[in-house]
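Record minuted for everyone:
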Amino acid sequence: MSTPLFSVPIAPCGPQHPGGTITCTEPRPAVYLLTWISPPDNRLTVAFCRALLQALDIVEFGGYKPGVVVTTSGIPKFYSNGLDLELAINTEGFWQLFYDVWVRFLTYPMPTVALLNGHTFAGGLMLAQTHDYRLAPSPKGFLCLNEAVEHGLADATASSLDDALAFVADRQLVEKPAAGVYGVIKTELHKDLLAELRKEGVDAQELRFQEDQRRESERREFGKVWFQQYTQEEKKDKAKL
């Protein structure tokens, strides 16, 4: 067991989410393993998202050699059970924070690997998809789709950290950020998606949604008026007969 490099606390979010930690270890040189434990099932709360962003910042700016970031769960049954939807809906600013986590992974200047060592549902699977590589649980575990590798949701299967480290070595991932342009390449690759996820894009989407709602309301009102006129004309035509 490698010695922890650092640990970031996950603050409690109500009685259902008592909080936890994200701990970083270095099981191989320049391979940074972020292990989160947030009972009962690693829900993506505001506190979880903030802690994850902080952990990623520490790896990048804390003086560590550029390498590979692997994320996994210290709760064997769940990588992440996704959002607490009611809490998300009722927490101001949650969605932009959640999208900020996606943006961080999509542009992170080191290869990122999601070691899915347990069930990965809904928002948890979305988070995994923002990593560069995904290792599906083996021999069992659900990603909302059992045939994850065959359908391209995962790059391989893994039953342990050793499998993940073998994947990192086989793909020579530690060497990828050495030139210093890995994050730039990812940013360019995902530029259209990033434009939608960042605040300006989210605000623009909200304005488009409101405009679509206004037009739909006008269309419905027009339809009602048209139908009233239509039925009146029908009555007049019948009266003439």
